[in-house]
Amino acid sequence: MLDVARHDVKPSKTLPSLVLCCQRVLNANIDSISGLGPDMPHRLVKPVLQGCSANTLLRIERETPHIIEDNEEIWKDMCYRTYPIITDQYDLLEREVPLSWRDEFFILRDAEAKRLEEAGNRIRIQRLEAEELKKQRQVKFTDRVPPAKRSRPWFASPTQPKSLFQKTRADASKLQKSVFGPRMLPPMPASKGFRPAFASSGATLSFGESTTPVHVTTITRRVTSATSTKPIGPPETASKRKQPDSSADHRHPKSPPPAPVIPEQRMQPKLPAPTKKDPMASLFMPKHRAHSQLPNAVRPSHTIR
Amino acid sequence: MPRDVDMEGGGKSDWVRITSVDGFSFMVLRKVAMGSGTLKNMLSSDSNFAEALSGTCPLQERAVVLEKVLEYLAYKNTYEENGSKDDLEHFEKRVPPEIALELLMAADYLES
Fold this sequence. Notes:
The complex is a heterodimer of chains A (305) and B (112).
Chain A (H helix, E strand, L loop, with lengths): L17 H11 L13 H9 L3 H10 L8 H11 L1 H9 L8 H37 L26 H16 L1 H4 L6 H18 L7 E4 L2 H4 L3 H14 L18 H10 L1 H4 L3 H6 L16 E4 L1
Helix pairs in contact in A: 1-2, 4-5, 4-6, 9-11, 11-12
Chain B lengths: L14 E5 L5 E5 H4 L3 H7 L6 H5 L1 E3 L4 H20 L14 H14 L2
Parallel strand pairs in B: 1-3
Antiparallel strand pairs in B: 1-2
């Protein structure tokens, strides 16, 4: 009928009481117990309940509600048994003892399940990643040619045989472009301002360096056409600048002296700076383009000796 | 050969009748019945229980359960006399789990 585990000491002297026998039988068939009945005294059932699982205990409790209050101790023991580490903390840290060991047990169980799940997920992800890596290294069969890293339309690529000489030439041309870059801009947006700048640059040349081999003679005719002070300014300053230095070139003053006094004073301090530069460079790089106040219709011509 | 117990109390081979709630009655030797503390008290001549006079004990147990109880008492009686020389057959094997719970309660009530 029953296979009872002989875990108890075989009573040689005294017979096991019927109570004891019954308890052993019940222990053997714990999972079959559904309920206890209203009359079951707790002391009788206690040893049986202590040996059963949490689920069974819960089920029995549902069937036999009157026994719940007596089960606190059982739940406590179950907590200790199942999660010894955590429950020990209650003693070590002197944490507040949970009012309901029963609830505590389920809290612990859920936490444990979550931890296991997370660990499982982590392992699974690692395994998948390892498999992915492995797959990438595998030899794949395909009928598509992989994209060529470098397409070669020309057999002799111009960039390949780059000798040192070619490299320096390329660098030099790049530099020239960067240096003379601004030169290209002025003719486009402000070509008008570009011209008078020539005049001023020409003036600076003669003013600053008397020893320069290049003498620029600028003949300005715009003074007569314009009546505003603006057009008068730059050519007058140019002419005024020439006055102190009359040895290098000749120039005819076109405006009354008192008018351009103010602009002259303004222009003069700025003149010495560019004169120190290479005349060839200043030809192409009009620095005073921004300061020029000449109108649009001016077209001076200059000759280089 | 069951025969009713005499009103005077009878000898050692008295039989007592134990009745169950569903109408069954069992005859056991008085000696056997004395294995149970409750029955002993009930049947004792010292007390004034009605059972002692009539020699019958109506118990509020089902016949199935009662039968098992009495079986145990007989088993107990047998092996107590022998002085446990023999290898006891564990009575647990003879307990069907279906009645184990009720048997437990009965056993507790009868202090066996």
